[in-house]
Amino acid sequence: MKSLAIIIPAYKAAFLPAALDSIAAQTCKDFTLYVGDDCSPEPIGEVIEAYRDRIDLVYHRFDSNLGGTGLVAQWERCIAMSRDESYIWLFSDDDVMEPNCVEELLKQIDATKGAYDLYHFDVNEIDEDGRITKSLPPYPPVLGAYDYYKGKTTGRYRSYVVENVFSRKVHKQAGGFKNFDLAWGSDVATWCIFCGEKGMRTIPNAHVCWRRSSQNITPDKSRTVSERKLMSECEMLTWAYKYFGIEEDIWTVNRTVFVSKMQQYKGRVGWRCLRWAFHTFFQQHEHHGAMLTTFLLIILPKHIYNQTKKQR
Fold it and tell me: Interior CA angle at 23 toward 20 and 28, to 5°?
């Protein structure tokens, strides 16, 4: 039995060959690739067939689409395709990995004697043509759960899904991925849980390349998607407040994040959604004395808010 399962929940075919090329080019082949076709209208199976002699792979086409309504559910049923590999790498159908990623990962697991349940690759951002457009800030060698949460939510660190590898043991213990709508924030909450008390270990000398393209859900700023994202953001903040409740600055961190998110979304979502988010946030965080100042921070430009604050 190989020690690593690389798992691709597949729906889009446009960049799938690039992802598979990067996997086929790995200098260490101690892995099995599992591809779960989410009942895609695109020719996922045809693309996969061209790689059967280059990659040890398992392909399955599901009879129904889950990703459109429950992305985390699609992730989980793809993970369930795998066997007993000790580590799981949930990858994607449009990103790529550098040729030495698997080799460096297994070296790091061996060097640390598998002490961590979560291993992390630093990330480069690429465009639709595969060109590196940005080298994202590196993580420290070991990053604790709360420091990761603060760094991610306040913009110090960038985080996706494809750059982290986790143990099957911790995935089973946690009951799988934390489930928010659109999986928006699901990865952040899950990585915090998977960190446990040990934190996440960064793998040196190798990168994952995350692709920014028109096919990402990230650039979708439609009202419907924006409202679903804002609701998930609020659910994630509530989860974090309860999970990290012993941390002295969790209220300050979450309030800063909430104000930023409300400012970001207020031009894209309806008033009813904004009102729901505001009341939900304070109902869960129970800091009602800060409601007025928080409201003013959200609706007023910064220089006007500062003038108002001085007058008070």
Answer: 160
Is the pTM for the entire model greater than 0.85? yes
- As a whole number of angstroms, the distance between CA 71 and CA 254 comes to 25
List beta partners, residue 32.
Answer: 5
Which residues on neighbouring strands pair with residue 209, listed in sequence order? 96, 124
The one-character DSSP state at 287 is: -
Here the tokens at position 310 are: 């001085």
Taking CA atoms, 104 is separated from 107, 239, 244, in Å, by 5, 33, 32
pLDDT(202) > 50: yes
Q: What is the mean pLDDT of the chain?
A: 93
Yes or no: say if 201 and 140 are a contact pair by the CB < 8 Å rule: no
What SS3 class is residue 90? strand
Quote the CA–CA distance of 139 and 162 in Å, as a whole number: 15
Contact 26, 98 (CB under 8 A): no
Distance (Å, whole) CA 90 – CA 71: 13
